[in-house]
Design brief:
The protein has 202 residues and is α+β, with helices and mostly antiparallel strands. It is built from 2 helices and 10 strands; from the N terminus they run H-E-E-E-E-E-E-E-E-E-E-H. It has helices at 2-23, 189-194, and strands spanning 77-82, 96-102, 107-112, 118-124, 126-132, 144-150, 154-157, 162-166, 173-179, 187-188.
Length: 202
């Protein structure tokens, strides 16, 4: 009987390892694959440009260099993206960037990235930020992990968890955020709840 139990345990462990291996991103098959955004075909990313037409400029990106213009912005904050559609060299590399700019009182509304973990690095000012854990246990409800992150400090948001950013300081704040996905998925909670276009039920 012990022998059957051992075989079951070994089989279970092998299946668990296979599941973990299959859940990770595949290794790249070439040095790079700069996206051809004009190609009509997309299979888990974009078709690669002909490597002979790729230049050093394809690997450079200035889209996050300047602060966003927040004039008239109702939330006094903005996110500027550096995802594969903005920076085609990220294609198949599993990375994305975001620059956040927040005036005092500015907020990036609660949101999730279902396809990526995110790291926030504060460039200027300070940002009150955090995430909420998942829980289905009433004895251990969802928990908020939040703090003020100052210039030169970083904070991590685990994949898929609701998180936010708020400038509760007195000067503008900015951060560069790195995500481990070229298209991390963004779901703003307010739009998900109230902007779906679902007719109200009477």
């Amino acid at each position: 009987m012990a022998r059957n139990s051992d075989m079951f345990t070994i089989s279970f462990m092998i299946l668990a390892v296979i599941g973990v291996i299959r859940a990770s991103d595949p290794d790249p098959l070439q040095d790079f694959c700069v996206a051809d955004l004009l190609a009509g075909v997309r299979v888990s990313g974009y078709i690669c440009k002909d490597p002979q037409t790729v230049t050093a400029d394809d690997f450079s990106f200035a889209g996050l260099a300047e602060a966003a213009n927040l004039t008239g912005n109702p939330v006094d904050a903005a996110a500027t993206f550096g995802f594969v559609r903005d920076w085609p060299a990220l294609n198949a590399l599993g990375l994305g960037l975001v620059r956040l700019d927040l005036n005092p009182g500015g907020v990036i509304m609660p949101h999730t990235h279902s396809l990526a973990t995110e790291i926030l690095f504060v460039l200027e000012g300070e940002i009150y930020t955090g995430f909420v854990t998942n829980s289905d246990n009433p004895e251990h409800p969802n928990k908020l992990f939040a703090k003020v992150v100052k210039k030169g400090e970083a904070f991590i948001f685990p994949r898929g968890l609701v998180h936010f950013q708020l400038n509760n300081g007195t000067v503008p704040a900015a951060s560069i955020n790195v995500l481990n996905g070229q298209n991390p998925g963004i779901q703003l909670m307010s739009i998900s709840l109230f902007g779906t276009g679902i007719d109200s039920q009477e």
